[in-house]
Amino acid sequence: xxxxxxxLPYVPHxxxxxxxxxxxxxxxxxxxxxxxxxxxxxxxxxxxxxVAFANASxxxxxxxxxxxxxxxxxxxTARFYxxxxxxxxxxxxxALSPPVLRVGGDTACRDQGRQDPCNGPLPSPGxxxxxxxxxxxxxxxxxTRWSEPILLRRAVSPGTIAPVPTRRGSDVVVISSILASLGxxxxxxxxxxxxxxxxxxxxxxxxxxxxxxxxxxxxHHIPPVLPQPPPxxxxxxxxxxx
Length: 242
Hints:
transmembrane; UPK3B protein; membrane; alpha+beta; transmembrane helix; disordered C terminus
């Protein structure tokens, strides 16, 4: 019988710090575990992430090899899958890797085959539970604990949005109508008085039309953008290569 994988005390979790898009309707972020697998991993090992609906994590069984890894496309029926296959060295203490992983962030992998682990969008709010699994050539070598349930955001249904604002009281509507009418009357009176003053001013002004007609104007011409010469090394190179 294969040796059971080592049980590690690490518990995967969503980053506690503020992060844009930390949890969305189809994805969530995980803090990358560092220094967790160093005592168990070899250079050829890989770390996987197992994702399961919270009520199905107890039925998940570690695959014996990479060929037995449950794919993303079977999530609706199997209720779990594995993704984010990564070299174990990326989780070492000395690795210069991003501190956060995003689960469900690849929208282009829906149609990938069984041998291509897919990190596709999660189909429902869940909740989900995840764990990391260290896989070697002979099967699982170490595993973390399952995370606490992670619930995604729920998308707002268009049918729940009110098409018109909430009706206000009749008294408020009457007062608003009266104020709007008074404002319109006042604006008309002010514009009429200003118009009369401007018309009287214009009648007594000499605009000097003769000087205007003899004055010439020039516009600034913007030449077309010419193609830039290629940088050094973009040409044909030594003679005989063109």
